[in-house]
Amino acid sequence: MRTLAQTETEFAPPAPAPAPSDTGLGAALRSQFPILDQEVNGRPLVYLDNAATSQKPRAVLDALSRCYAEYNSNVHRGVHTLSAKATQEYEAARAKVAGLIGARNCREVVITRNATEAINLVANTWGEQNIKEGDEIILSVAEHHANLVPWQLLAARTGAVLRHVRLTPDRTQLDMDHFRTLLSPRTRLISLVHVSNVLGCVLDAAYVAEAAKRVGAKLLLDCCQSVPHMPVDVSTLGADWIVASSHKFCGPSGVGFLWGRYEVLESMTPWMGGGEMIADVYLDHSTFAPPPARFEAGTPAIAETIGMGAAADWLRSLGMDRVHAYENEIGSYLYERLSAVSPRVTVYGPKPDAPRGRASLCAFNVEGLHATDVSTLLDFAGVAVRSGHHCAQPLHRELGVAASARASAYIYNTAAEVDAFVEALQDTIKFFDDAHGGAA
Ligand SMILES: Cc1ncc(COP(=O)(O)O)c(C=O)c1O
Asked: Is 391 assigned a catalytic role?
């Protein structure tokens, strides 16, 4: 059996990764995020749980507070001044989201509660109308539960067959050779994650879109981890629908969106019934509004939607190319420094120099330690990372683990914070090793 001492002698850590300059974007933006300026457990907060939810800049906090302080009112329903202003701001938010994702028609943006609701909406409308027994839906083993369970429910109702793209043999990304073998004339829908919330791998969306077109299948992309971090342009992406959640791109929680090609949305019957989504209502039947109103039954999350619009505008004002470039830098630094901590550290997903790169998140495990223990000790040092299955249980089974810890960076994180995280992780490993009387 190898001891820690032996392992460490055998392990020649790679040369330290060059640190991104702390005069870069991260440092420049921090003062706009009041929450970051605090201590947690007596140490400066290092917030590295951005893949779960991001923090909000002052521009978003101000938009929320202005809505409630100055013009709070219901939308689409009143002729009075406050209602007109609320409606105008709500619809402006839709246009801002459309702008962020390159949608030319803002009526293609449906406001939902989150990405999960957006996927359920497609499953319960287009899915119910178009999927029959024996039809095939291609998903992958790396999907978030939000992109697995709605299709399982649909398959149970319709008798459709679910096919799952597996991982490459090195288990770092989706196996496109396997994907090819799953395509058939029975394929009606392909629904895949654009950027994995665990592996950080980036889907070859152009290839998948071309394949979907070839077999006449519809394509949904789960863009929860791409829209916040990189340019996503629906006019060239080739998808029929994309989904994302505001809380992951600097906006409020409780709101997200479904983008769909207009003719596809127009072909979809309503899901939830109620106010706002109708044209005319009689006692025994109703006629329905065109999209997007058809899919927005009831009073929406008005202030939150306006906040989501402010977040979309704020990101666009930075430039998504610039955001992506900085995240590549900080993400590579995070990956390299974390990988160099110890040979007992496994970081999942591709290397940063993989052809399509990787997201600025690292799910990892330390051999002999439980991910939750690692995260708990990191929290004592003021470092917030997530632990668990990250709503991707099937993927963790593929990786042969029940859970992982995950450090995920965003535009306001700095190299100094990555250093603080790495130092806290080294202390954590040492703490448990000492407690166990040597190597775990
Ligand atoms: C890849 C991915 N898809 C879907 C979701 C679900 O997002 P929400 O819970 O905001 O609907 C998440 C959230 O973690 C995610 O990372």
From this structure: yes
Residue 54 lies in a domain: no
Distance 203 CA to ligand 1 centre (A): 16
Q: How does pLDDT run across 367-392, given as a tens digit for each residue?
A: 999 999 999 999 999 999 999 999 99
Mark which of 262, 293, 317 sits at the end of a domain. Answer: 317
Cβ of 114 below 6 Å from ligand 1: yes
Cα distances from 427 to residues 209, 361, 421, 433, in angstroms, run: 46, 21, 10, 10
Which ligand 1 atom is at minimum distance from the Cα of 245?
10
What pTM was computed for the model? 0.95
State which of 317, 352, 370 marks the end of a domain: 317
Task: Looking at the structure, tell me whether residues 177 and 220 fall in a common domain.
Answer: yes
Q: Whose CA is nearest to atom 14 of ligand 1?
A: 52
Q: How far is CA 158 from CA 50, 153, 162, 268, in A?
A: 37, 9, 11, 17
Structure tokens at 261: 């090609």
Residue 15 has what pLDDT? Answer: 55
Q: Is 110 in the pocket of ligand 1 (CB under 6 A)?
A: no
Decide: 341 in ligand 1 pocket, CB within 6 A.
Answer: no
Is the residue at 412 inside a domain?
Answer: yes
Domain limits for position 12: 4-48+319-435
Number of domains in the chain: 2
- Residues 416 and 394: their CA atoms lie apart, in Å, by 34
